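Students often ask why we bother encoding 3D structure as a string. The short answer is that it lets us treat folding as translation between two languages. Here is a chain of 257 residues written in the first language.
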Amino acid sequence: MSKLTPRKIRTFVSDPHNLTQFPFSYILNVKRACTPIYPKDASTIVSYVIDLDRGAHVLEAGTGNGSLTLYLARAVAGSIDNGAETQQGRVDTFDIRESHIRQAEQTVGNFARGIYRDAVKFHNGSPSSILSKGLDPLYDGAVLDMPEPRHELDVVVQNLKNDRFLVCYLPNITQVVDLLSFIKKNNMPLAMDDCVDVMIQEWEVRSTVIRNPQNDGANEVPQDPVWICRPKNFDVKGHTAYLVKLRKCQNIDSQRV
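And here it is in the second language, the structure alphabet:
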């Protein structure tokens, strides 16, 4: 896997600066086929909810725009360390809409010259229609981004390693209740570890000048800077979805250990 070399840009007031492409800004500006999973949720899913590492094998159902796909691939992809390439992980991502698959392929392929493209396998179809045909078992983690994840829950759980995590991305709390009721009713080997709603409050922090009360319209620069520190109430990155963190907790058959 080749290393990403930052591009250099030259401004009209200073020396050249390095400009490296990062997923959080890329995802917010990339062409959209549908509403993406935003960086605040994607980074939480990768680092906290399913806790992925390099070399992991992860399932994503509901590829959509490919924003989470990129974050997952970045987490599991191998790297070059002291000349030796580490183990390459893989993302198996599923979507029943071919248009979503095409857009997601562009989203992943156009980021950083396609450095993470080889870490993703795109599947046009549902997990239940494809996994039975024989993909590599078992997954280290899974993400379901669909209105009714219960339809794919059984096949995903069967292909998930025990004591590993599955997260469902659900915009409405009623969907969370329906999901947990379904799991309980069907006695599925899943326990809810957490249900989180990620919100970010941005702050405005800057120095300012003071208006001169004796001279209308005139400003004076104080000897010691005066700082403005306040929340950006007009730009709160608020609720997008609930992240339901489920842990597979199937009883272990001692004869299989």
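Translate back mentally: Residues 1-5, 253-257 have pLDDT under 50 and may be disordered. Keep this in mind for the problem set.
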